[in-house]
Each structure stands twice: as C-alpha cells, then as structure tokens.
Amino acid sequence: MTRRRPIALRESLREAWRLLRAQPLRTALTLFGLIWGTAAVIFLVSWGRGLQSMMEVAFARAGKNMVFVFADKAKEDFSPAADRRYLWFIAEDVAALRRRAHLAELVAGETSLFRIGSFGGRSASLNIRGVEPENFAIRGVQLAEGRAISRADATLRRRVAVIGGTAQRKLGARVGDWIRLDGTPFLVIGRLARVGTQLARDGPLIDEQIWVPLSTHQVRWHNPLVADDVIDLILLRMRDKRLLEASQSEARAILAERLRVSPDDDEALRMFSPEEVLRTIPLDQQGVLYVLIGGTTLAIGGIGILALMLDAVRERRREIGVRLAVGGRPRDVLVQFFLESTLLFALGGALGVSLGAGGALVLGSAALRNNLAPELRDLVPIPELSLGVIALALGVMAFVAVVAGVVPAWRAMKIDPALTLRAD
C-alpha cells in the first residue's frame, strides 16, 4: 500500500508531461495565463503597497501631522469680497496657540517672500523664509552640516541663514560663507539635508528655500501696509493624525477669538493639512483592485487548463474505461486527473512567482533607481515584496487550481466503462 502512491504519482507526472507535449501551443498559451496571472498578483500587490508608502512619505515631507493655518478676509454679510476686512497673524497669536492649544504638540510662525540671493558672482531668485526654532521639528527637516537657527538668533535678530541643498547649488555658497539676500549680508550657518519632492506644500520645495530667523525676516522685509510684524503662516503639529478635525477646530476657535471673527467663518481662517489630502486618495482600495486584476488573469489561465483537461478526458476515454473495467477505482481516476491539473498549476505558479518576485526586486533595486533623476526617484514606488504577498498569490492560484481541476477529474471518474468499450 505504501509503494502504490509513489508509483501512481510517477505515472501522473509522466501522463502530465505527455499531455504537455501533445499540444504544445495550447499548453504554452495556458501556462502563459497562469504565469502572467501569478506574476501580476505578486507584482501589482507589491507595487500597490510601495505606492501607498511612497505617497505617505511624499506627503509627510512637508511635515508629519502638520496643519497650515492662513489668515484671509473676514466674511461679512452683503459685502463684496473686495471690501472685506483683511486679516493677518502676529506673534501674540502664535503665543496664544502655544498656551491654549492642547492638541497641538508644536506651534510656530513663518513668513515667506522671494528675493534675489547672490554669492561670488552668482545670483538667483530664491524663496526666503522667516522661521522659528520649532519649524525644524515641525517640518521634520534634518541638517546635513552646520547648525540650526537657535532661540538666541531669533532674540538678537542675527543675520544668519540655513540654506537648502538646491539653493546652495544655485549660489555655490558653503557653510561659513557670507551671502547677500536682497543686498543684505547673511552668514550661512547650516545646510538642510535633502528633503526631496513634496506632494503637499505651501510654496517651493524646501530644498530650494533659505531659512533665516523670523524676527530678522520681519525687520528686514517689514510689510509697509501695516504697523504690526506680520506672520504669513502658522504651522501646527498634531499630537496624533487621528485628531486632525479636533486640532483644526481647537485652533480655529482660539484664533477666531483673537481676530474677532466667527469660528464658522471658513474664509477668514483657511486650514490645510497633507493628511487631509492623503485621506482623499483611495490607496487601500487600490490593493483590492490589483488583486482582482491578477485574479482575473489567473482565472483565464484556469479556464485554459480546464479546457485542456476536458480535452484530455475525451481523448483518454478508452484508457479510463479499460482501467475501470479491470478493477481500477473511480477514486484513483479522480486523483490522477486532479494531480495532472495540479502539476500544471504548480509549474505555472513556480514560474509566475519567479517572474513577479524578480520584477519587483529589479524595479526596487538600488542600481536601477540610482540612474533616475532625483525628482523622479522620489515619485517612483519601490515594490514592497513580502512572503505575505507571495502567499496571497499562491492562495488565489490554489483556489483557481481546485476549481479548474475538480471538474475534469469528476467527469473522468463518472465515465461508464461499458459504454466506452462498446463505443470502441
């Protein structure tokens, strides 16, 4: 009893191989569907997971759990937009948020404008930002060299600057050099580490910016239209991204009170968060779509194997009838045909796993990505291949294999040997 199983398995293997060689074109097309379907499930699901990670990272480059707050115009009944009261932030508004906002982990003010920067005969129009020390933590920016802007720099209104990598290449200045911003000399005290492409931002890329102390920025480029030291933008970092709506409502209530507008005035206070935009993108649903696409391709391959095995049953009716007539059990016929279809699926699945996993590894390889331009490198997803993804593909393939293998095997088992032999 123990020796019959290996013999039957070897016979099934030989029979399956004979079936593959008997109809090479149909076999090749059938295996192509299985290989492509298995590879599609693995590659597309890995790609989808990599796309989701890429999007999350690209949005977080502007700042993790961050909210932008802008002041605009107060909404007044029956007043045209041109006649509405202009609003702006001042340092006391930022201080009030720091004291009273419990859901905001960090708060900072920021100013921004474009001016000509020059050094050593080079010049370029650059985005100059007035920042506070908290801005580095809120935006999650690291330093490649030098130091960040300190509280003492802000208090003493020092003419110091931290330069982005792209801005540094435009000017050719290094840490320790004196550059001119709109004609005023500033000492470069640090260089920001590369941030890369940001999918959500309030202006040019951080790599293209130059940061100076907020107080210095306000004094050097004071808004001539108002007496106050204006702050263009307030940045908040939430304690938890799940508190987005609550954090915005809390900040809106505090600032509306100070600006003497209604908290419901969405035109007076405009808020924007990268997390809010990311939520509108159905990244989780894309994974289901990729599985459906790959599963459909596998199903087409399964239909091909189903047709192939049904043809084999018709061609081998005499053989099946003789086997049953001499004492073979219907169960043995069922197992043999099921094994033959399973072996076809195993061959297609093995090649499909190799193709899908290989494609994911090649696309995510460092050698290939290093040949891309930096701005494209940030926007090309790295497929996240895992054993779970491979198991998912094999699970889908196993389901199709069972469905496509049972029907011809069941039909072969139900052949009446008397009718088969009489027909011959």
Describe this structure in words.
The structure is a single chain. This protein has 424 residues and is α+β, with helices and mostly antiparallel strands. The protein folds into 2 domains: 4-59 and 282-423, no CATH class; 73-267, no CATH class. 55% of the residues lie in helices and 16% in strands. A hairpin with a 2-residue loop joins strand 2 (104-119) and strand 3 (122-131). The longest helix is centred in the N-terminal third of the chain and has 37 residues, at 24-60. The relative contact order is 0.18.
Which descriptors would you attach to this protein?
16 helices, 2 domains, 6-stranded mixed beta barrel, alpha+beta, 424 residues
Residue share in helix: 40-55%
- Class computed from helices, strands and strand pairing: alpha+beta
Strand order of the largest sheet: 2-3-8-5-7-6
- Low-pLDDT segments, ≥5 res: none
Radius of gyration: 34 Å
